[in-house]
Fold this sequence. Notes:
Protein name: Geranylgeranyl diphosphate synthase type I
Largest sheet: 2 strands, antiparallel
CATH superfamily: Farnesyl Diphosphate Synthase
Family: Belongs to the FPP/GGPP synthase family.
Enzyme class: transferase
Number of strands: 2
Organism: Isoptericola halotolerans
GO molecular function: (2E,6E)-farnesyl diphosphate synthase activity; dimethylallyltranstransferase activity; geranylgeranyl diphosphate synthase activity
Amino acid sequence: MSAASDLVETENLRHDVDAALERHLAGLVDEVAATGPGTTAMTDQVSSLLEGGKRLRAAFCYWSFRAHGGASHGAARDAVVRVGAALELFQAAALLHDDVMDASDTRRGRPTAHRVFEARHVAQRWTGEAERFGTAAAILLGDLCLVACHREAASALDALDAPVSRAARDLFDAMTSEVVVGQYLDMLVQAEPWGEDPAADEERARLVLRAKSARYSVERPLMLGAVLAGATSDRVDAIGAAGLPLGEAFQLRDDLLGVFGDPAVTGKPAGDDLREGKRTVLIARTLAHGDDDARRLVTKHLGDPRLTDDDVATLRAAIVASGAVAGVETLIDDLAAAGMSALAAADLDPRGREVLQGLARAAVVRAA
Length: 368
């Protein structure tokens, strides 16, 4: 099967999604610039963040549309492409807020937005706290992207028949609410006691990854594509049943990469998730199955932003020795198999099914 980049290029999808994003951003630049001087720094940062994305969410939506009988040209196809652009704008909003909450320094090999605005404050020798300015600017930028995604989706759906438009709008709105609540659940997990009941910890970590990432990364885009093709509720539910386990596997792969990924590929420092203290299934399984030394190491050092590369290497070794990595890999395989089985059983156009299967594999087996 072709690589993910090739699949996203198929039927000119990446080009068309990028063109839709460029059109929306052009209008946004004019609107923002007219508001007052100095404001185009916001849209410059949005453009930077949107560059180079995988466009997997847009691709899942589009190829679900095609797999459910949607045409490769026409008004409905144009609407699906624009909904794909809205999904990319929503991801940008989620990443901006996530980076602030995690105090991340880099994203895709570049400084995160709050660090960019913090550095701008320092360089201009403005008054007040540079860090606070950067944080506030990034939050507002995330809000701007959230507004943009809803505007793009609404404009796209206005061109469709009312029943399809209404169903897609309801699903899109539910997706955005889920992610916001998922972000809160993530904060709650970070704040609540951890390590006393590893099985409960793992279930809480999985609840977070489903709400915060799995649904909007795979399940909801697949369901949106089906709705936009006019699929029956049974077929929409069937593609959703494939999407949720695939979305879980996608996020679990992200969690592994956050600890073991190559910085040259991921664009983030090695072991960044350990410094940020992310409480994931990987960490829950380390605490559940590691020896006393491993548990002490994790309890003491998880969330320490001063961890050296040697500290990270020591923690990694303990995580591997606990069997947590092998266990999460097995869980990824099981979830991916369940998702693939559901795709195979769903009532889909053969070509669309083939591309969706390729996209699913690319989402689960990746290095960034």
